[in-house]
Amino acid sequence: MEGQDLGEGRRRRQRTAVTGPARAPGVPCPPQVLAAEENVDFRIHVENQTRARDDVSRKQLRLYQLYSRTSGKHIQVLGRRISARGEDGDKYAQLLVETDTFGSQVRIKGKETEFYLCMNRKGKLVGKPDGTSKECVFIEKVLENNYTALMSAKYSGWYVGFTKKGRPRKGPKTRENQQDVHLMKRYPKGQTELQKPFKYTTVTKRSRRIRPTHPG
Asked: In the chain, N or C: fewer CB atoms in 10 Å?
């Protein structure tokens, strides 16, 4: 019983440290406690929205290549087959990347073949003509070394990775800290922009009309 009482007391102190002491009805909450609660709620909101589809915001579509650190070449979507052996500017290495969430979830489609980059339940990278499955959704992670890693949205902890010969690695054999999963975004050869710039409309100020004066 004493052990249970001690455990309950410890848990009560931990809850008090996080949320503060219990407040009587009508007693205002201190500003620092409100700020802490709002920060926790916002973090939870961001995490939830990152995992959810966004049907409200405009989808962003970008065109670029993904350079593999290990193979020294670019990811290719060759129909149902995926590799990382594409040269700079190769037509199969040009990828249309669609961001459709509040966070950083993306769908990647080969511009030439119109097949999507996907990861099946065995962790194998494959191309699919239909990208609506969650197997075709990846979470972008920007790493400390400025490389990007793509983690499967369906199979957490499984990454897009390649060997030195440009062959895909199976998801269960990949880790975030492996060079095999380190990718870098690159413009296609001869292209200088990832997406079309926003066009501004200039409005010229209307000059004030001067009325002619008539002699009295």
From this structure: C
| Best CA proximity match to 71, nearest among 183, 148, 165 | 165
CA quadruple 109, 110, 114, 119: dihedral sign: negative
Residue 161, sorted as left (phi over 0), alpha (psi -120 to 50) or beta, turns out to be: beta
Count Cα atoms within 13 angstroms, Cβ side, for 201: 1
Distance CA 119, CA 137 (A): 9
Dihedrals φ, ψ of 31, to 5°? -55, -40
> For residue 153, how many other CB atoms are within 10 A of its CB?
20
Cα distances from 135 to residues 12, 122, 162, 171, in angstroms, run 43, 11, 18, 12
Region 60-186: CATH code: 2.80.10.50
- Whole-model pTM: value is 0.65
Domain ranges of the chain: 60-186
